[in-house]
Amino acid sequence: MLHSHAEAKDALQDVFLKVWTSREKLADVAYFSSYLNTITRNHLLNLVRKKVNDAVMCEEVARREQQPADLHDTIMFRELRTTIHGAMSQLPPQQKKVFELSRIDGMPLDEIADQLQISRETAKKHLARANHQLRILLRANASALILLGMISEIL
């Protein structure tokens, strides 16, 4: 389903981590194989959904970059890009590096861990913290972007 051995290994590890973290509830599970199949299916569907959403977003960005944009879209895109780069510059160096390798270069966690000589779980934690921090910083700047969008529409 994932078309990548590395992603399949990541997904398998994530599923077993979910089983391990909910091991107290396993006594209540009557059919463990069905339980495991359901967890795996749901996790894979979420991953595929995320891949599709990421692909759609990339296509939309590429389409917008190729089309002549009006002044409003150009201003909003530049401001958003500046805000994102500003938020990324506030991340600790290791989190920033893991985020860039994962989200910009598209590298799987195993390769990031190998390249940075850290464990996969450490890379995963850095990525989760970077995502969380960026969400906070982008939410803080969202009102400024909305206001800028309103001003450029009026102009």
List the helices and strands and how they pair.
Blueprint: H1 5-21, H2 32-66, H3 71-89, H4 93-104, H5 109-116, H6 120-154
Helix pairs in contact: 1-2, 3-6, 4-6, 5-6
Describe the structure.
This protein is 81% helix and 0% strand. It has 155 residues and is mainly alpha-helical. The protein has two domains: 1-67; 70-155, Winged helix-like DNA-binding domain superfamily/Winged helix DNA-binding domain (Arc Repressor Mutant, subunit A, Orthogonal Bundle). The longest helix has 35 residues, at 32-66. The chain starts with a helix and ends with a helix.
Ranges where pLDDT stays below 50 over 5 or more residues in a row are: 150-155
Strand and helix order: HHHHHH
By CATH, the topology of the largest domain is: Arc Repressor Mutant, subunit A
Which structural class do you get from the secondary structure elements? mainly alpha
Distance between the termini: 48 Å
Taken together, the total number of domains comes to: 2
Give me the count of strands: 0
CATH H-tier superfamily of the largest domain: Winged helix-like DNA-binding domain superfamily/Winged helix DNA-binding domain
Number of helices: 6
Average pLDDT, all residues: 82
CATH class value of the largest domain: Mainly Alpha
Q: What shape does the CA trace take? A: globular
How is the main sheet built?
none
Summary, kept brief:
With 155 residues, the chain is mainly alpha-helical. It folds into 2 domains: 1-67; 70-155, Orthogonal Bundle (Arc Repressor Mutant, subunit A), CATH 1.10.10.10.
